[in-house]
Amino acid sequence: MTILELQNLKKYYATQRAVDDISFSIQQGSIFGLLGPNGAGKTTLLRMITGIFYPDSGNILFEGKKFEPIKDIPMIGYMPEERGLYKKMKIGEQALYLAMLKGMKRHDAMQKIKEWFVKFEMQSWWNKKVDDLSKGMSQKLQFVTTVLHEPKLLILDEPFSGLDPVNSNLIKDEIFKLAQKGTTIIFSTHRMEQVEEICDEIVLINKGKKILEGSVKQIKQDCKENIFKVGFTLLPEPFENSIFDIVSTKDNYFTVKIDEGHKPAAVLQAFLDHGDSIISFNEILPSLNDIFIMKVKDTESARQFEKVLIE
Questions:
Q1: pTM for this model (two decimals)
Q2: DSSP class per residue in 71-90
């Protein structure tokens, strides 16, 4: 089931195209990565999804119907990168206030707050103020206040900022649990290793345009470059061939790039014919970080070329 669909969204500021004809859909229960460099249009896009901004044109569908902020926003949880907590307010009172703003009854809100505070070991924080918390502790509180009302759609913008590895894993585990229960999660970050670990599908935008979309596994397959890591009992001397090039050498391994038109089996056979003893042979897929950089650079180069042609 598609829970959120964006159809040809546009948002302009004077001469700047913050979001320029972007379309994609998100399935219920998935963890969806929204990626892009600074200034790509991610924040504007998230603010349109949450009803803070209205698009200049295009449509947003929520659960198959036109997005209606007043009716649909209570089913959305949004944790922005900028902190949205009241610094002088006591933490327990603040969590209760924010939960009731989302439509929760006081009794239900108190019960949920206590459950989350125990889960995150925050019981002793009740009468503290946000001013008294570290950045990581504030991040845990912000996460809790975002999920208290059990939203159908959860938007997390840099949720691990300021967290140590232990608390990062704690929140990561809760993200997976929420997704398993049917919560749909939009995850926005600059940390590509986190995207590879967490997200099912991604969309990459740059300069307001969508430049890449799909499952993480399929994107890595589509962008692979026929590079393999070959392990040997004893590292052989390189030899001339018309099948592959040796990209690098480390310990008892060659990293090789297979020439177009040849198959991995041909590389194995070439080493065996050379008398080498192979102990491993693995394909190296590009990381999302490499793909991210490559696609953004390609987009910038295309824009520069287009600009030259126009001029």
A1: 0.84
A2: HHGGGEEEE-SS----TTSB
